[in-house]
Amino acid sequence: MSDSSRHVLVHADDVTKTFSTPAGDVQAVRGVTLSVRRGETVGVVGESGSGKSTLARLIMGLQPCTSGRVLFDDQDLSTVKGGDLRRLRRRMQMVFQNPFGSLLPHYSAVANVIEPLRLHGIGSKSSRRARAIELLDTVGVSEHFADLYPTQFSGGQQQRIAIARTLALEPELLVCDEPTSSLDVSIQAQILALLAELQQRLGLSCVFISHNLAVVQRLADRVAVMSHGKVVEEGPTAQIFDAPQDPYTQQLLSAVLPVTA
Amino acid sequence: MGTIAATEDVDTTGVTPAERPVSGTGQHEAPPRARGPWARAWDRFKRNRLALISLIFCALLVLVAAAAPLIAPYHFGATDYANQLVGVGSEGHVLGTDQLGRDILSRTIYGLRTALIVAFGAELLALLAALVIGLTAGYRGGRVEQGLMAFTDVMYAFPSYLFAIVMVAVLGRSIIALIIAIGIAGWVTQARLVRAQVLTIKQREYVEAGRAMGASGPTIAIRYILPNAIGPLLVTTSFAIPAAIAAEAGLGLLGLGVQPPTPSWGAMISEGTRFLLAAPHMLLAPAAVFALSLLAFTWVGDGVRDAFDPRGEQR
Known about the structure:
CATH architecture of chain B: Orthogonal Bundle
Domain ABC transporter (chain A): 10-253
Strand content of chain B: under 5%
InterPro entries (chain A): AAA+_ATPase, ABC_transp_ATP-bind, ABC_transporter-like_ATP-bd, ABC_transporter-like_CS, P-loop_NTPase, PhnK
Mean pLDDT of chain B: 83
Keywords (chain A): ATP-binding, Nucleotide-binding, Transport
Oligomer: heterodimer
Strand order of the largest sheet of chain A: 6-7-8-3-9-10
Structural class of chain A: alpha/beta
Order of helices and strands of chain B: HHHHHHHHHHH
CATH class of chain B: Mainly Alpha
Largest sheet of chain B: none
Helix content of chain A: 25-40%
Largest sheet of chain A: 6 strands, mixed
Number of helices of chain A: 10
Number of domains of chain B: 1
Pfam families (chain A): ABC_tran
Helix content of chain B: 55-70%
Shape of chain A: globular
Largest interface: A-B, 44 and 34 residues
GO molecular function, one term (chain A): ATP hydrolysis activity
Structural class of chain B: mainly alpha
């Protein structure tokens, strides 16, 4: 085992995902290999339909790979089942694209944050609530509003609550699937700042998926560019943005440059 | 949202629902009241006056049915041969008597009891069967779903009145037989609805988020999916209750209701037609209460439907 691979937390090894649809098979992810080292943020960029979200779900073990495997801390996710898999999930959490869709609508904000703690039997009823209030405070949601329901919050607030929920289990890996794409631009900046701060403070390993290049440039240590289910280029963020090699990456960057002022 | 008006005990000090906690830094001294999906459904239900009044009326009916032995002036089978077929307002018999001198008011009250026990029992049975089968089929998918839905389709193809007749023939003319007969006629559509709901909700991100958090299958099905699937189910159930009351009366009318002398509105109406000219009250009293209960339960159903209408969420 080489020196650098020792610190790898999650490793996708030549993973492929094919969906069978009535219109025929769709290859969402085709032979992607990607590693995330401990404490590192890897950005995944690409246009809609390039397979980014599917890759995120494969890395989280939410969907089985058609071929290839995902190793989390050297364990093949496809071999871990049932209760063991649920326990493994404590160590990896995901922030979803649509915060309102991902929060339980019939649970209050604080109950949503408590839920992962309850599921894994962490703490007592009162200590869980105290911890959840603390987490909500960390992400900037006041205790006054803890008992309100998701619909009573704005989109940005909902995403903060969703982030607090993912932090409850103190995961080692955080997968963010376009966490700001459903939010207003001004709120996007706040959420990104929050994620960047948390990532640094807690030393999280992070997979950050976005179609917004500016966002990825700001947060990621390394970037993988996806197109049609394949990683066309991968490397340190500065290298990708300053000297893109692949024609698709060049095209992607030039298409966005005028906007990133 | 939109109805967090200062209706009750909590002092909202003029905080309108528009003032969402945008900053989250606690600038608002009094946070808005927590309103979950159920509380908001209740808010919307309350706005429908007719439904609210009907609900109170239905609650009253349930109370009367429950306290029938205390309220009814006579036992339903008690005969008063000195006063046969006496009219409304007679001494001792406010709503008159039938051909055996039995008190119509008492029999109507006991008839209400029969109707409600059968209707609620049948719908409870239908609801439970529908939840178990629909939830299992919708959540598990695959062969389990195919098997359960094939069974449901077979049941669906069975004419419900024929089924009821068979049930009564097999189990005898008892309340249990009626509950099973009407309940089984009702669960099929409910089970299909539950399955459709579960299939829709399964696609929502919070279900995937639940899996990502490490929730088990049963937790996701019962704690996350079920509570969000139950709204539309309550709507159909609240419309199914008056239908079940009507079905009970219908079977009674056909002579398939509960064993006499236990009163059923259907049987009372059927008997009343034989004395229509001599004693119209025999038919009119149970028919009027029957019609009123049907209306009230249906109006409650209307309110429940509006309360759970997803379009109602906006305003």
